[in-house]
Amino acid sequence: MPTREDMNEALKTIVVPYLRQRGFAGSFPHFRRIEEKVELITFQFDRYGGGFVVETAMGNKEGLIPTSINN
User: How far is CA 40 from the centre of its chain?
Assistant: First the structure.
């Protein structure tokens, strides 16, 4: 089974250049791309070893707009 170091090396060698070519900034394991929208990618590793997940998110570039509720 690959070690975490093996997975890190593979991700940095294969995935990070791919993300950079597509306009993502940031440093491993957190990346972002801000264009018409904000796109986030994070790699999270299983603390017990053996795997990882890729978490993605997308949101409005302007962010949240606070509103008030009148009763």
Answer: 4
Model confidence over 24-57: pLDDT tens digits?
Answer: 999 999 999 999 889 999 999 888 777 889 999 9
Element (H, E) at 33: strand 30-34
Q: 28 is in which domain, residue-wise?
A: 4-60
- CA pseudo-torsion sign 6, 8, 11, 17: negative
Neighbours of 36 (CB within 10 A): 7
| Cross-strand bridge partners of residue 40 | 32, 57
Total number of domains constituting the chain: 1
pTM over 0.85, yes/no:
no
Q: Under a CB-based contact definition with an 8 Å cutoff, are residues 24 and 32 in contact?
A: yes
